[in-house]
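Appendix B. One record, verbatim.
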Amino acid sequence: MDRNMPTPGSAQERERFLALQLRLEPMFREVYADPLAERTVVVIPGLSLDQDTLAHIAGVSHYEERQLSMLMLLRLPRTRVVYVTSTPVDPVIIDYYLSLLGGVPAGHARRRLTLLSAYDAGPRSLTSKILARPRLQQRIREAIADPATAHLSCFNATADEVTLAVHLGIPLYACDPALAWLGTKSGSRHAFREAGVAMPDGVENLRDLTALHDALAALKRRNPALRSAVVKFDEGFSGEGNAVFDYGDVTAAEVTSEWIASQLSRRLAPEAAALDATRYLAKFAEMGGVAEAWLDGEDKRSPSVQIRISATGALEIISTHDQLLGGHSGQVFLGSTFPADALYRKSLQDAGERIGDVLRRRGVLGRFSIDFITVREGDAWTHYAIEINLRKGGTTLPFQMLQYLTDGRYDPERCEFLTPTGQRRVYRATDNLCRPEYRRLTPDDLVDLIVEHRLHFDPTRQQGAVFNLIGALSEFGKLSLVSIADTHDQADELYRRTVAVIDRAVGIVPTCASGAVDEQ
């Protein structure tokens, strides 16, 4: 490590980091308001999250591709992008994204793009890999045109990202890790309470299994009709840190902390397929978490609100989505539709904005999302907030691609996305289009199919399909797909047609009239 650099986690590092952060506000006011201004964005797309939890997600080693939407910034003629990954991204994937830059010659964009790699596929965060390689850090610094107009963009911010920002000498456009507790399941519940937004009955700040036993018993006592509860790691990801506890037919009088302790390993079903109850509980004892009542309803949805708090302190509603969930009990994120249902998207936005305002007052910066469970009660819809994700996520790439490809914007008053000519656009997206047969395809094969069947996004009509996680195709049979259209029905039809083309190419026989197969 450079001897001039402060010790990671020290007061000196904190002081230097906060001084760098002061650059963000004038940079965003003066530089980022001008599309012709010179700037450099250093993208570190790794997931700085619990590696044991991430290990249960198929193809997670390729999730660094989910921020390739940031390459669309190259449509700005004087913007440079430095994109760093654990292992090199296949050139055909980069070519695919550069082909989406309408009006910008690929050669011009490529001259302003620097691709760097740690050449390390090991199971630790990308940022830690970069910090272990001083010469790689030097190459990143050399690729920055002017540190005064550069910033660091990441999936989520931890102490490692603070250290990297200090080493590179540029500010970090993300939530200060000192506020990261607000993005835990426990911290989320504190924010919901402060915002006055409804949430499921539950208990937070559980630090050991004894506290979990007490919490599950208390939930049943408060609601004798409760049949299930959800247990969550404080820092779970994509629903993989959740588990469902089944009370069965026992009465509230029978459910004591001792009864919970005797039944927990037998009645607890973790959402992650590769994680049994014993291992889950050991991890819970290590990470802590919450327990919440399972919400039931004849018509139950899982929408989310995406928000950005800018370096100037402005709070912006970016989008709303209805999440498509799967897994053992329907808690694993598979994809989304944008925007959320018109029946409740305005009230959903309002609830999200109230929570966002709490986070803004506490100093949160950057992009984040808030997940809800929405239940129809008579003619009304009630939103129950369930978690805050102080990071980018599964809805980031789809929305960024829509925004950059159409040059449109989300209108929070109309709760719709509009192109510059006032046309409405929607999409259906998935991160989990997964078939074993897809392993027969290489990235080159997919591009051939895109060209042969005209699945490429059409800039004239501002509609079409966009692909991601292309690098996971051959190894995991996994792909990400965004179908953009002007109505939900058309987006669904484009999605089904696109999937059918890929299925036929690998010999999958259609199982329904549309020729499509649902996500698995």
